[in-house]
Amino acid sequence: MNKNMIAPSVLAANFANLQLDIEMVNYSEADWFHLDVMDGMFVPNISFGMPVIEAIAKYAKKPLDTHLMIQAPDRYVKDFANLGVTNLTVHYEACVHLHRCVQSIKDHGMTAGVALNPHTPVSLLKDLIKDLDLVLLMSVNPGFGGQSFIHQTYAKIQELKELIQAKNANCLIEIDGGVNDKNAAKLISCGADVLVAGSYIFKSEKPIQTISNLKSIISK
Ligand code: DX5
Ligand code: ZN
């Protein structure tokens, strides 16, 4: 997989005219769509589910990177595969049989990611890291867009990078929450491969330009 990627989080898009924002991302230099599914139980917010992803998939011309903030995500792996999701990321904290869930994601033809909340140590992934295509480090507490970046994330990226190298694993590091032009370069230099950005992109005046700026910052 390519590195130094930008994944705009659709959570911050205009839901009353989603097609317009989807086309904007298609046209932009962004690499993936980041889709945040929240169930109101694992996180204190409800976002969107299958019908909305089905609608997005009709127009999206880039991979669908789907971040499940739901309890027991293994119940829905098949449904997300059927919607055409490319990468499915589940939370470490939401999944009792995480190894089985990761295998199921791969068996359904998707790449598999595991997300860690800010308080969850990277070391807990040591027995699973070789099976993963992606690790998502939450750099805010999951549930809402527009929160402030947690600085401890830089150290966690470095720790994760060391674990990946020590285990000879091959997985991408994705950072999600509070990403902007101020922290993007440092995140990449610490070892991140994919940066998710929601409000920084969609609330900006010229989102296409904002994406382009982020891309040039992280490509240096
Ligand atoms: C938070 C979500 C994020 C969120 C990021 O729970 O996982 O993807 O949309 O939004 P910003 O970039 O606004 O922090
Ligand atoms: Zn997310």
TrEMBL record:
Keyword Oxidoreductase: no
GO cellular component, one term: cytoplasm
Keywords: Carbohydrate metabolism, Cobalt, Isomerase, Manganese, Metal-binding, Zinc
Cofactor(s) in the UniProt record: Zn(2+); Mn(2+); a divalent metal cation; Fe(2+)
Organism for this UniProt entry: Galbibacter marinus
Stated name of the protein: Ribulose-phosphate 3-epimerase
RNA-binding found in the keyword field: no
Any GO BP: pentose catabolic process
A Pfam family matched in the record: Ribul_P_3_epim
Family in the record: Belongs to the ribulose-phosphate 3-epimerase family.
Active-site residues, Swiss-Prot/TrEMBL: 36, 176
Residues holding substrate: 9, 67, 143-146, 176-178, 198-199
